[in-house]
Each structure stands twice: as C-alpha cells, then as structure tokens.
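Lecture notes, unit on protein representations.

Consider one protein chain, 211 amino acids long.
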Amino acid sequence: MSQIITKHIFRHLLVLVVFIILINLGLWQLRRLEQRRALNQAILDGLNQPSITLTGQPLEPDEMHLRRVSVTGTFDNEESIILRGRSLNGQPGAELVVPLRIQDSDTAVLVNRGWIPLAFSDPEARRAYDLDGSVALEGIAYRTQTRPDTIIAPTDPTPGPGQDGLDVWFRVDIDRIQQQVDYPLLPVFVAQSPDPGSTSRKRPVAFRHIL
C-alpha cells in the first residue's frame, strides 16, 4: 500500500516539475521576445536621430551605442579578422571585421562589413572582399562585446607563442583586438549598413539591423 502511495506522489511530483519547467521556458521565451523588441526599438530610435560623423576624436561608447554614424577612411585589409559561427539563411559563414583608418586622424574604427560564406573566410580567400582607397560608409555604432558571464559562453583564446594575433574571434572585443593593432581604435565598432547604390558583388552581405 505504501509503495502505491509513494509511486502516486512521485508521479504528481514529476508532473509538477515538468509543469514548472514548461512555465519557466515560456517566461524565458517571453523575456527573449521583450529583449528583442527593446533592441529593435533602440535601433529604430537611433536610426531616427541625426547621423554622427566619426572623426577619430574621443567619444563616450555608452552614448554612441546604437546611434547611426558615418565615417570616411581607408580599410586596413591586412588587419581584417572574422567572427566565427555566423549563418545566413541556413548557410554557414562568418562576419568580416576590418579596421577603417579614419580620414585626417591617426585613429581607426572597427567595421563589421557583414556576412561572407565559410569558403571565403580564410585570410587568402577573403582578400576577394578587400576594398582599396578612400571609402565613405554608414552604419550603427555598438559598444564593445565582452564575454557573457555564463559557463557555456565561448572564450576567445590568447595568442600562442610566436603568434602575432588572432584571426578568428567569437565577438568584437575592442580592448583585446586593440592588443594586436598598432594604432588606436575607437571604443565602439560599426555594423555597416547596406549601400543602396552599390552593385558590387565584392561586398559582404551587410546588416539590415532590424532583426
């Protein structure tokens, strides 16, 4: 009799645990939805504000976060890096990040130029996306990306002996990337916006920003 009661209680406890898990999963999904909506609204608010021209002068990253910006300069293609594990419409790939030496300044800003196929992600293959000469671009400014405080978040490794720097990263950690670049970087990076007038196929797939 006691065994039957114990099994009955166990079943009820199991159902209760499953119910609690499902409730928490639903709440987590709602929180993620609200976070996504808040991010999209913040991006929209930034897009609706006047564009700020980056000149290389010091700036406050928190004030610039999600603001629309423009900048003119020259890409340092030799210092390009990629962000691993980025897919587009189910295709594996990476995002191409290149320092832009700002015109009339000794400072540069990291520019996430957009998505490229995995087959073009190694240093030699992605030279197909090099842009030479002066370029003017627009985009959205973002604060540096640091590792989330969770166990499952991957960590960008430290360069090994004889290794000048990392070519493949998980995130745009400006302070760490600064360690392998010889000139000062602004404390924000720019996610480049699509250029409606461009017909070049040498361009990575730029961001639409609203996700």
